Amino acid sequence: MRVHPGIVVLAALLIINTIILILVSAFVAWPWFGENGIIETAQVVILILAFFSFARLTRAPTPAVRFLYASAMIICLFCVLRELDFDPDGALRDVDYLIGGPARIVVAAIAVPVFALFIYHCIKLPGALQRLIFATHTGRLWIIGCIVVAAGALFDHKYLAEAVPHLWEELLELNGFAILAMSSLIPHADAERAVASLPRRN
Fold first, then answer.
1. Is residue 102 included in any domain, yes or no?
2. Within a domain: residue 82?
3. Which of 125, 142, 2, 109 is nearest to 66 (CA)?
């Protein structure tokens, strides 16, 4: 089976940045990996870039594909809001309140119809959901990215040993978000090909 060149490049990048971050953690103060540290800020930047990259893919002609990317945009927004934290008693307390409450409500209100339309168009195109997730390079990268981010959550919620450095949570999340962002660089033709032969349900 031929491996997509992008996956090879991604694997190399993940190995390199893992080595770099581990070396950095040995010589640089802890705030690199703490809340609102440089690594967490990089995560937010990557997610914002991915959001706009997915936005350009929503021009795809097939509705199921179009709303797949729209759903990805919503997921990016949720992750950005999750990663942004400010001191509730500091100068940016109003921003922290907006992010923690109203902003999440607004995004959730937008997410419901977007996700519903994605499911609706997948039902209208039987087999589309499975193909979009498992038969495209985009879908496979999403699976890998979600697994990596979930692994970071295990450290965040202390399901793994307390002795494990906090840097692993931030490192895994950074890599997971980078993988999701990379999937946004794959042309929508990848997803269009996967569903092109499916019969449409009236």
1. yes
2. yes
3. 125
Domain assignment of residue 159, given as a range = 5-195
Structural domain tally of the chain? 1
- In 3D space, the residue among 147, 49, 25, 42 whose CA is nearest the CA of residue 84 turns out to be 42
- Residue with structure tokens 């589309």? 128
CB 107, CB 77: distance < 8 Å = yes
Number of Cβ within 10 Å of residue 149's Cβ equals: 19
Structure tokens at 96: 């922290």
Cβ-in-10-Å burial (0-12, 13-18, 19+) of 189 comes to exposed
Q: For residues 141 and 182, is the Cβ–Cβ distance under 8 A?
A: yes
Token pair 């890599």 in the structure block, residue: 175
pLDDT, tens digit (0-9, with 9 covering 90-100), for 119-159: 999 998 988 999 999 988 889 889 988 898 888 777 665 54
